[in-house]
Fold this sequence. Notes:
The protein has helices spanning about 1-35, 40-65, 70-75, 80-115, 125-155. It is mainly α and about 160 residues long.
Amino acid sequence: xxxxxxxxxxxxxxxVYIFVAAIGISIAALGRYIFNFNIPGVDELSGYxxxxxxxxxxxxGLRTDSHINIDVLMKRFNPKxxxxxxxxxxxxxxxxxxxxxxxxxTSLVESIEIGEKALTMLQTPLWxxxxxxxxxxxxxxxxxxxxxxxxxxxxR
Length: 156
């Protein structure tokens, strides 16, 4: 399924970004400590990578059942009741994601229209991290819908 491949690709790219951010931060820290030399923008780029990793990991976390559950409560129910709970929670989740996505898209469009840039030395256009947030919410919404459909199918 396309949603699964996109979520796996985003998770893999997130792993690469974490590695790159760790190397960048390490080089910057060593540069300051050993050579008294600062690499400008590393902290800002690492922050943007953190945004990417967080939002791209949402769908993957749902697909791999890595999000928080109340296992103590769920173990007390039979499988049919658990599936009903998942369907209801997924429906609520899709609604909440829709609200978040609406405001993320609104913020993205506004950033593009006014040419908003970060108030930092790099002056990064803010449409870049905001577009990542939108893509993350879209992938999470698709994963949530897939989960809901899967649970509805198992109820039959």
